[in-house]
Design goal:
single chain, TIM Barrel, alpha/beta, ten-stranded mixed sheet
Length: 347
Amino acid sequence: MNVFSSLKAAWHVDRIKELRAGRDIVPTHVQLIISDLCNQDCHFCAYRMSGGFSTEKFADEKGNRNPVRFIPTAKALEILDDCAALGVGAIEFTGGGEPTVHADHIEIIGHAQRLGLQTGLVTNAVRLKDDPVFHNLDWLRISLDAGTAETYEKIRVSKQWPKVIENIRLAATFKKPYVGVGFVVTRENYNELYLACYLMRELGVPYVRVSAMFSTSGAGYYDGLLEAILDQRQRIKELETATFKIVDFFGNRVEDLQLGKPDYSFCGEQQFVLYIGGDQKVYTCCTNAYTTHGQIGDLRSQRFKDWLSTHRRFDFDARGCHHCQFNDKNAAINYMLDPEPKHVNFV
């Protein structure tokens, strides 16, 4: 499915040209975390769980791992104004926390849409409703991670399964956004992957995105389970139809964990995509969010456009990252920046 291609940077020839010249570019995509507060408590959350990669600076000063922290509405609107003026193409509202917990999430997402920015939303769908703002998204992905109410309640610490299933049914009727469901495979839910995918197909969802859990346990977290998970992954492919697809990133993500630190220095991904946390700090990516290593800016006392015009991101060395889930994208970008690629005519 080309909407998930790792070669999207190739469509931005002007930005590739700037990178070839050694200049930072305006990102095409900003991940804007308007809320660090969440109305669920997923045990595999990289921001909250013990051993999560993004826990270093996520908790508040009292050690609360679910901080009541939001980007103020006026600041969020300002950031969006700057994004539109700079030529950013798309905004992804994600977490951090749950975007729809922000009291003004409808106003903020709607403002991005009125500015002509493409919008995507990652949500647990507890507060999803029949609103024009949700209908006007370009894509919508709902985090489910279970095939039964019992497992959902266990791993998300939430009794909202019936409501979420009905909201998924509603979302599947939306005409504009490309609607999907996310399933992060864990030791508690892997045996429900087929069941979840079957249920989503019956609800009319166009696709299910399968991924892996990221923690300091790395790929070792899945020791003893990979064969059983592979069986589930093979079975769900049999569910595919002309209108229902499986987007299976699990194998690639486990491989990223196994590889560990990147063996390349230049991170092209953070040139195209930037992450602005609910703490109003700028991070290189979602993997490095809320960490000292990943923090590259602070918007609390300056505008996004002013920070972007003065900060040099070429100085960031990807070899300092514990792992990278964007190896395939960085490989493609670095290939496009190669000054002397070999055999390019042998397409």
